[in-house]
Amino acid sequence: MPRFDTVIVNGLVVTAADSAYYNIGIKDGKIEALAREFSSADLEGCEIIDAEGAYVMPGGIDGHVHLCQDLKTGPNKLGGRCSDNFETGSRSAAAGGTTTMVNFASQDRLDEADRSLIGVVQRYAARAQSTGSYIDYAFHVIITRNDPDVLQSELPVLVKEWGITSCKLFMTYDTMRLTDRQLLDVMVAARKNSVTTLIHAENGDAIEWLTEQLEARDMIAPYYHALSRPPLIEAEASNRAIALAQLVQNPILFVHIGSPMAAQNVREAQSRGLPIYAETCPQYFNLTWQDLKRFHSPTCFENSKMICSPPPPAEKNDHEALQRYLANGTFTIWSSDHCPFRYDDPDGKPAGVLEHAGSMQGESGDGHNPAAPCTSVYHEVPKEDLSRLLARKMGHFKHVPNGIPGVETRLPLLFSQGLLTGLISPSRFVELTSTNPAKLYGMYPQKGCLMPGSDADLVIWHPQATFKPFALSNSHLHHNVDYTPYEGQTLSNWPRYTMVRGKLIWSNGKIVGQLSHGNFVKRGPNSLHQRPQPFGTDLRNVATWL
Ligand SMILES: NC(=O)NCCC(=O)O
Ligand SMILES: [Zn+2]
Question: Containing domain of residue 236, as a range?
Answer without folding.
Answer: 60-399
